[in-house]
Structure formats: structure tokens, C-alpha cells
Amino acid sequence: MANSEKRNKQVPLAKTMASFALQGNPVSRGITIGRAHLIPRAALDVPHYLVPQEKVEQEVQRLERAIGRVHQELADIWATLPNDAPVELGAFLDVHELILSDAMIAEAPLNIIRLRRYNAEWALLTQIEALSAQFDAIEDAYLRTRKADIVQVSERIMKSLQHENSTREKEKTMTPPAPAEDVATDMIVVAYDISPTDMLQFRDKVFSGFISEIGGKNSHAAIVARSIDTPAVFGLPIALSLIEKEDWLIIVADTCTVIVNPTGVVLEQYRIRQLAWERSQKRLRRLRKTPSRTIDGTPVSLMANIEFPDDCAAALENGASGIGLFRSEFLFLGKKGDKWQIPLEDEQFEAYKRTVMLMRGRPVTIRTLDIGADKPIGVSDFSAINPALGKRAIRLCLAEPDFFMTQLRAILRASAFGQVKILIPMLVHASEIDQTLSLIARAKAQLHAEHKKYDDTVPVGAMIEVPAAIMGISMFTRRLDFLSIGTNDLIQYALAIDRVDPEVAHLYDPLHPAILSMLSIAIRHAEKKGTSISVCGEIAGDTAMTRLLLGMGLREFSMHSTQILNVKQEVLNADLEQLTPQVQKILRLSEPDAISKAVQKIRQLPSALS
């Protein structure tokens, strides 16, 4: 933080209350210190009263105004998103806008007011409770988690209702009280739940950390916390009842710890640790131009995952050797106020071309459309019984060849301007691979007939994200040029766990022996066949996994650009001659505790930089 030295000139004394610590779920890294700013659930203090019959329509209009203000609030957030905002926020905003416009929110509570004469807050809460019960009864884990989006939208409406008569009062819920004039104090948000969009708004003020009663490492908000590099701890179910407004807090994100009301001595110790952490991050930035090689001289490619061409600037700033994953589906989500749509070929071509040009000769891997589960789009019927197992990704593209051909043509045209690779998601069957390659050949033939330039040798690869793809990996290496392991879905499908479902998120374990075995099988087979293979899921950017993956033989990682330098530091400290035999021993283990301890041990192996 830019003002850390200024803050450390005067260390305020902590309150003379008993100090205690809370342990939560890992979300991000870093240390931050500040005062607690509580964001209680709006629904907890909802007034319940009956409206006189003659005032029912006035109450209806009050709720309609609140819904209208939230529409405007979402539009304002869209319009003011900074350039460095995680692009996932656009998709979240679109989803919240759709929920807000749906009859279940926009009409049903109004009918409750008219029929039962409930006040607006009571009517809204009644409808949300009914919807929540319906979602809780759904067997599909993914659909159950959509309840969180509905609750977050209702919270916005509730806050708007509660502060209708004063914009200043409304802002009070979003802005921390001014700290004492003699101390520049950061504030830490303590909330029941934090939406990704609110997280970005909070960051733009004086908030330096986040604590949430619910959520885990793989929730949407956690991913955003990592992308904006902000210390956070989630999964503290009684935080709001234990932490009081203005309490001093220390977030030690690496150990998932929150220290409440630390003593003056502890506060001073952690300010020193915080300063050391910030200095270490500055030193990391010096590694941007350092070649990514292990101690024994083995080169390791560290690439970036992006969603839009503008993300290339951050990738280059952090020293990415290329783009390992361009999630093209975000181009299909439309602009503010638009419905989800299919971009025209030229529009897609210009986006891909711009990305290739911005990367200045570095490789750009473009993943074809991966929609249908958590990223639906209005091109087909997505009323699958289980969206995660239905017509998604390549299955949808092969079922809708016209728009798939449009994307393939656009990608091929962009390949004339630099190194482009085509990555196909969710492939499982040989027939899917063959059909995809046939469509790519047809797209090339069309472009050739139209005298449009493209790279005839553009590499084509597959996402390995289903256990069956691991077990049948030879049919992939026989047909394709490269592979990329999508560990997010691989772990989800292999362990039958929805990573964003808070009820089972603790079981989402990348160190599960079955997961390690599958990763090892894929990496060893690709190496044997001379096929390049990378990991582009969340574990690629997890420094706790870096040495383990290197010891398995992985030489290509792709991650969010903010994680590249941390992973590079691990690579520079790794000695493969020491590491490889130790990792082979880990792969023979089957007990979780033994695996976890062994992984910690290889992270502590001595190195030339230690």
C-alpha cells in the first residue's frame, strides 16, 4: 500500500478488550490492518406491519421506486467500472440485472403488497424466503448456489427501501466513518456476504480487506479478491456477532486468520510484518523481465488468462510469456443494457486480432465458446436438467454449427497476424474431436475460396477437464497439437463437488490423491508423446501447488496475470534435481494428511535464492 510508511509513523493503541482470533477459509494473500466497518444483512431488521388499504398503491410505488433505483445503481456501476476491474464483474452485473427484471422480483412482491397489505420490506422478504426455499430444494448443486445472486439483489433493494429519503443516508452504508485526523486508518469490511461488484466499490474507497461470514476459496467474490490482490478471509459464520464497529482487526490472509482487538504489542508486530510483505511485493515486480527458469536451468512458460483484449496490458506488465487462455465467451455477453448476443464475425475478428497485435508476437491461445452452465447465452435452449452435464461448450457448438463456424473463421483470420492457437473446451469423445477438426477444415476452405489470409498450420488443442479425457488421453494426443488441463472443472467432475456451493466447498481438494494421479497421468503421457501440455485452472496460480506441478513435469502454466510474479518466484527457487524424486514419492501416497505434509515439505526445500 502506498501509504504504509506514513501509517507506521504512528501506531495507534488497540482497545483494551480481550483479544481473540478467528479462523476462516483461504481466499487471497497478504496482511492488512484496519478498523472494522460492519455491513449487516439488510433483511435482519425488516419492519413488519400492515398498510392501510388506501395506502396500498403508495406502498407498491415505494417498492417500484426502490427497484428502479437499484436498476440505476447497477447501470452506474457498469458505466464506472475501471479498466483494471476483473472482467467477470460484467457478467455478474448482467445476471443481477436479469434477476432484478424478472417477474419473481419485479412483480411478485408487488402482488403480495396488494393481496396481503404487507409493507414493502415485508413483502420483499416474504418473496425472497419463498424463492430461497425453492432453491434449497433443488437437487442440482449448481442451481442451488444461484440463490446467492437472488439474495444479493434483494439486499440492494432492501437497502434502497431503508434509505429512500436520503442519498446521504444511503451512502452511509457504503462509506466508513472518517478515521481520527492524526492517524490514516484503513477500514476492513465485515459482512455476511460480499458480492464481487460491491467488493470493487469498497476497494475504491479506503477499504483494505474483506471478511465475510459465508463463502470459500472458489466463490466468485474470492476470485475477484485474488484478482485485485486484496487480503480477505471468508467463511467466518459468526463474525458479525463477535466483531464490533471500529474494532481493530488484523487479516493474515496466508494463514486464513483474523485477529480481533490485538494488543498494542501484537499490532506493532503485524505492522512490521505488513511492511515486510509490501516490500516483498515490490521486490517481486523486479522479476518481470527475469527469464522464468528453475535453478537447474529448465525453462518454464508462465502465461496469462484473459477475457478481453484490454487485459493484455496487465499480462505484459507482469511478464507473461503469452496468453494461455483467452476466454472468448465474455465477448458474447453483450454491453451494458444489451441482451446476451452473438457478435458478428468481423467484431470477433477485430477483438482477436487486437489481442494478437497487443501481445507483440507472443502466442495467444483462444478458447472457443464455453457456455451453457455458469455462462448461459441466448442462442439456444438451456433448460437442461443439469446444466453442468448438458449441452454446453463444444456440445453446444457442434449442435449450432453456424455460430461456431463464425467464431472459427474469426479466429483463423486473426491467426494471420501472429501466433494463434485454437483451444476446444469439454471434449470427451473421439467423434467430437473429429467433427471439430472437420469444421475447422471447412472454415479454412471457405477463407481460402474468399482469398482471406490465415495460418494454415494453426495449432488446435483440447481442454482436459473431464476424468474420461484423462483416461482416454491417447485419442487426444493422436489427433491434436496440444492440451490444456482445466483443473476447476476436472476437480469438480472427479469429486462430484460444486466448487461454489458453500455446503460442500470444503471438499473441493486439489491434493486429493485421485486428482494428483490424473494430473500426473496427463502430464507424463503428453511428455511421452511430445505433445505440449499446460494447466490453466486456478491451481496454476496457486503457489502452494507450483513445485508439486513442476515435479510432475509441467512446464507451462497459465493464470490470472496478478499471480504470475508470485509463481515465477517459486519457479526461480525450484531445483528439479531435488524436486522430482520427492514429488514421485508424493504421488505414491494415498492418505490426505501425509500428502499435505509432504507438499509442505517440498516447499521448504533449500534453494539458491533462499
- Estimate the helix proportion, in percent: 40-55%
The helix-and-strand class reads: alpha/beta
Biggest sheet strand order reads 1-8-7-3-4-5-6-2
Q: How many DSSP helices?
A: 26
What's the alpha carbon Rg, rounded to whole Å? 25 Å
Choose one word for the global shape. Answer: globular
Low-confidence stretches: 1-16, 165-184, 335-339, 373-385
How many beta strands in the DSSP annotation? 16
Characterize the main sheet: 8 strands, mixed
Average of pLDDT = 83
- Report the sheet-strand fraction: 5-15%
Distance between the termini: 25 Å
Question: What does this 3D model show about the protein?
Answer:
With 610 residues, the chain is α/β, with parallel strands linked by helices. It is built from 26 helices and 16 strands. The strands form two sheets. Strands 1-8-7-3-4-5-6-2 form an eight-stranded mixed beta sheet. It has an eight-stranded parallel beta sheet with strand order 15-14-13-12-11-10-9-16. α18 links the parallel β12 and β13 (460-464). α15 (345-358) runs parallel beside α17 (401-414) and α23 packs across α25. The radius of gyration is 25 Å and the shape is globular. The relative contact order is 0.10.
